[in-house]
Amino acid sequence: MKEDVKKYNHWSTDLKKTIPALKQIPKLFFNNEWTVESIEENKNVILKKLDSKCGIDWIVENKEQIITVASRIQFGNNWGSFTIREQRHTGTKTEYEKRVEAIEKGYLYPLYTCQCYFKNDYTFLGGAIMRTVDLYKSLENGCSKKKSDNIFKVKYFNDIQQEGFKIKIINNQNI
């Protein structure tokens, strides 16, 4: 008897859904002194490598500095947490594994990680941004796990704040 196999969206389908949400995020987290270049829609070969090999979604620049940011978008509810894929149903390397390796070996990775929640109509519900290395240190302090088609590490924004890590939390009431 043949098992039913769940079909998953191709990454390009999910990306198309998130582009309108991604365009809203920079103005929420960065003031007008910063300019934001989204790598997701850019055709530059080097920038595409920063995305595919390093997980960098944005390059953010002001007069003095450039920073890099990874972003995760979810639709439906504001769960007030970072969710990071720890294990894929396919067995391929996850964001968590890639990032841990990059941090340990000194490879290039996003300086900041951002997670945001939107309604299906692209209304912003909430989100947070923090230094990636601090997020991963916080995960080492303990986190919950969520299992769907994959396994995710889940760390709530308020728990991270209570641990003393610097995190910028925004919800739709304080924008």
> What's the arrangement of strands in the largest beta sheet?
1-2-3-5-6-9
Global morphology: globular
**How much helical structure, as a percent, in the residues?**
25-40%
Number of domains: 1
CATH topology: PvuII Endonuclease, Chain A
Q: Could you tell me the mean pLDDT?
A: 86
Give the biggest sheet: 6 strands, mixed
Number of DSSP helical runs:
5
List how many beta strands DSSP finds.
9
Output the CATH class name: Alpha Beta
User: Based on the structure given, which CATH architecture is correct?
Assistant: 3-Layer(aba) Sandwich
Strand content: 25-35%
Q: pLDDT under 50 segments (min length 5)?
A: 1-11
Return Rg in Å: 16 Å
Separation of the first and last Cα atoms: 54 Å
Global structural class? alpha+beta
Order of helices and strands: HEHEEEHEEHEEHE
Question: How would you portray this structure in words?
Answer:
The protein is an alpha+beta fold. It has five helices and nine strands, in the order H-E-H-E-E-E-H-E-E-H-E-E-H-E. The longest helix has 19 residues, at 11-29. The strands form two sheets. A six-stranded mixed beta sheet has the order 1-2-3-5-6-9. The chain has a three-stranded antiparallel beta sheet with strand order 4-8-7. Mean pLDDT is 86; it is low at 1-11. It has a single domain (11-171), classed as PvuII Endonuclease, Chain A. A hairpin with a 4-residue loop joins strand 2 and strand 3 (66-75).
